[in-house]
What we know:
- This protein has about 350 residues and is of the alpha/beta class.
- Among the domains are: about 1-80 and about 250-290, no CATH class; about 85-190, no CATH class.
- About 35% of the residues lie in helices and about 15% in strands.
- It has helices spanning about 35-45, 65-75, 90-95, 95-105, 120-125, 130-145, 160-170, 175-180, 230-235, 280-290, 295-300, 305-310, 325-340; strands at about 5-10, 50-55, 110-115, 150-155, 185-190, 225-230, 250-255, 260-265, 275, 320.
- Strand 1, helix 1 and strand 2 form a beta-alpha-beta unit.
- The longest helix has 16 residues, at about 325-340.
- The protein is flat.
- The two termini are about 35 Å apart.
- Bound molecules: iron/sulfur cluster (SF4).
- The site of iron/sulfur cluster has 8 residues, from loops.
Amino acid sequence: MKTNNLTILADMYGCPNRCKHCWLSHMPNKKMPDGSDEMIVNYFKPHFHSITFYSWVREPDYCENYVERWQRDIQISVNAKPQRFELASFWWLVRDDNYVRFLKSVGVNTVQLTFFGTEEITDWYIGRKGAYQELLQATEILIDNQIAPRWQVFINTENATDIIELLAHSKELKLSERCKTFGGDFSFFIHSGSCDGENRKLYPLRINKEDIPAELIPYYINFSETKTEAELCAILANDDTCFAYHNENEITLNIANNFDVYFNFTHMRPEWKIGNILTDDSTELVRRVIDEDIPALRLARKTPTSELVKLFGNPQSHKIFDCVDDYKAYMLNEMIKEHS
Ligand code: SF4
């Protein structure tokens, strides 16, 4: 019996960046073989009412023929249509004049660009020289084409002061005023991000809540709801519920370029793998998806949060976490790593 609506995010082309905060984790860039899109959709088609297919899970549109690719994603989807988001390829924005026109033509009004401070530190975090200048250039291209840039900034101990400079630079560039001339809304926001994927390696650099510079607090998303690790340990010390990711009717799967299948919960690491399209029978793999039957989730469902706090919490730490679930996910991944 067919059930649920499925969204597929397939890593068909990879990503030009190697961001040190990437929640998905770093994976090799490899173009998937021609016909992989159809093969993936056909694999799941017998089991789902509708399938929305995206040919990217990392950098959107990161292929030469991005226009045809978008049309193909629409065509290959079943009883569903892929959407555009506030995400785009800044790689293409600065390399191909037609790309911004393509974004306009598919109704994109805002594009998020990710910074980590000024030039040196942003290049280091994105993993390639020139990234910061490309982000500034992309900002100009977007505004010239009446698309509002949204600057997302990740903060750590080492870049807090640098972000003050970046904020000042965004003001010098008059980005808010310039976006208003076409009814757009420039925004600048800061957060620490989750603590999975590559960002988990940055745990030692996670900033203490009291060290967030006062002038950046107005730009920090929901700052009043952030907590220190010590506060979270106290809140969760007696929490006997288990933190296990769970899907309702809508299921999203990430497909790696070697056809490994993952939920889009937390990172794409081996311990979260559901199966492989090339080697697993689709009925069995879909059963694991529907029943959420993988070792990591089985372990999550039988471990109370209070136990995670005992094993992995640090009640002395003032490191900031943006929400309770980010901290639970961090502790859960610590435990899963120990069991794998
Ligand atoms: S965060 Fe996005 S742009 Fe950066 S490496 Fe990961 S997928 Fe690529």
